[in-house]
Amino acid sequence: MVTIAVAIAGFGGVGRAAADLLLTRRDRYLQVYGADVRLVAVCGSRSGLADPDGLEAEHLDALEEGLTGPKFIETSAADILIEAGPSDFRTGGPGLSYIQPSLAAGRDTIVISKGALVHSGVKLRALAETSGAMLKISGAAAAALPTIDLLEHSLKGCQVLEIEGILNATTNYLLDAMMSQGLSFNEALGRAQAGGFAEADPRNDTEGWDTAAKLLIIANFGLDAGLVMEDLSVEGIQSVTKERITAWRSEGLVPKLVGHLANVKGKFRASVGIRALPISDPLARLRGKNKAIRIITDAMGETIAMGSGTEPLSTAAAALKDLEHILAARVRPVPVPRASP
Ligand SMILES: NC(=O)c1ccc[n+]([C@@H]2O[C@H](COP(=O)([O-])OP(=O)(O)OC[C@H]3O[C@@H](n4cnc5c(N)ncnc54)[C@H](OP(=O)(O)O)[C@@H]3O)[C@@H](O)[C@H]2O)c1
């Protein structure tokens, strides 16, 4: 049996959910991969906890001040890092300061925050290639909605011609509430904030930047598109008025904030903006806090995935899906005996 040590940097809603889920799945990892997966370190911005024998759930409420930072993770001797800190795509930090040394040291790294991937994606991929580390990013690429896995596995070998993604749950909720309940943008936003699923400062979502970051990550990591943020034109939903909503409704159209990627003779063009979709379009029927992606390929035609889950559990589960991809590649799965007919 092989022992796999995991550390988590960034211990807020998603980091904690990832820790809890990992601990409840330890028997599964043992049975499926023959791996004793231990959580050996966790840290937030000021405090953390480490134990080479493995932390248990009851330890995780008593973090110790000062146990944090890239060096703290380094000394935990983790085989795998899960990074779940804040996202800042203008600086890449603070995730970059954990992800970069982790990949350079050859440590398989699962990234949930988007900032470092947008800011330094090319550099991080090159680092991983050089060191042989696996870099997995499902949590940052719309999380519970499969995006990268569709490109890397389900549509393998096909040429992607076009992608349309409704990649931000908050903006889908807001436009849906405006369409179905006749609310103004500010009224819908107030409800989302009261429900705890829109930030006090919602501009990263409402102005389209979160969608742009996810689209860019999907394009660069899934298709090697080589885009930078400046290549994208980005429009949000903050100026949508009740009058515009009424006009769309009367024309049988449904507005969605869509990240669009087109492959024009091998060159990718990307944008984020409002698309008024005919009501017959499956993406027009996406309600509430859901996300969706439509991928059009040369040989498999149109593929659509839609989904959501309760946060932060579903984002944690997307990161642990990546953990299983790593275990499957690094540790030989244990053969499961077939039931006799
Ligand atoms: N929440 C979701 O549903 C969701 C969905 C998809 C993706 N994401 C992404 O997942 C990431 C985490 O989201 P969240 O909701 O868990 O955020 P959160 O609750 O604000 O947690 C962020 C965590 O990062 C820690 N942190 C800040 N600076 C740090 C540093 N220098 N070193 C170590 N830790 C540091 C914070 O520590 P302190 O507590 O000490 O400040 C906190 O523990 C974000 O990048 C977000 O975009 C979230």
Automatic annotation (TrEMBL):
A Pfam family of this chain: NAD_binding_3
Enzyme nomenclature, EC number: 1.1.1.3
Domain Aspartate/homoserine dehydrogenase NAD-binding: 10-134
Homoserine dehydrogenase catalytic domain: residues covered: 146-323
Xref: InterPro entries: Asp/hSer_DH_NAD-bd (IPR005106), HDH_cat (IPR001342), HDH_short (IPR022697), NAD(P)-bd_dom_sf (IPR036291)
Key words of the record: Amino-acid biosynthesis, Methionine biosynthesis, Oxidoreductase, Threonine biosynthesis
Family: Belongs to the homoserine dehydrogenase family.
Name of the protein in question: Homoserine dehydrogenase
Species whose genome carries this gene: Aquamicrobium zhengzhouense
Taxonomic lineage of the native organism: Bacteria, Pseudomonadati, Pseudomonadota, Alphaproteobacteria, Hyphomicrobiales
